[in-house]
Amino acid sequence: MSSCSLKLKNERQSGFTLVELLVALAITAFIISGVAVAVYQIMTMNASSSNRVLAITQAQNVGYWVSRDAEMAQQIDIGLNDNGFPLTLTWVDWDGIGHQAVYTLNAETGRVDRAYYIKPSGATEYSFSVNTMVAENIEADAEKTDCYLEEDGRLILKVTASVSGFMAVSETRQYEIIPRPSV
Known about the structure:
- This protein is of the alpha+beta class.
- The protein has one domain (45-177).
- It contains 2 helices and 8 strands; from the N terminus they run ααββββββββ.
- The strands form 2 sheets. A 5-stranded antiparallel beta sheet has the order 1-2-3-4-5.
- The longest helix is centred in the N-terminal third of the chain and has 53 residues, at 18-70.
- The protein is rod-shaped and about 110 Å long.
- The protein starts with a helix and ends in a 6-residue tail after the last strand.
């Protein structure tokens, strides 16, 4: 008797119909495509955010270093290039020690460097002290990065940093710096 009842159960069982399989595949494809779109959006937003932060940081680095030295400067010499570089800032501190910071912008690499020189009290010439890379990815075009003096003595510095590649971004910052009055 048990073998008969077992045989009846097997005859009554049926599999999935073709329509049920197609509906299941459609639902699975819909879910997978939604997940793929979400992953792509997360990746593009992450790349865009990272590039934007990098561009902002690079532009702010130039602004910070130039502002730091320009506020101490008693003499500002703007370069002959269209964008105002090289920028030379010179000052003498209370101990009679001369300081000079020279900022250069390499048009090919987009790199801004700061060369710092010191002239000890009583010396006739500056001696090299240290060279520092301030920022990279800086646009050398005078429309995007510029440095000039206003008639009232303010130093205007406009800096544009551009990060290329996947999700390229560009950020511009402008600084107005009031140098120390000459003594």
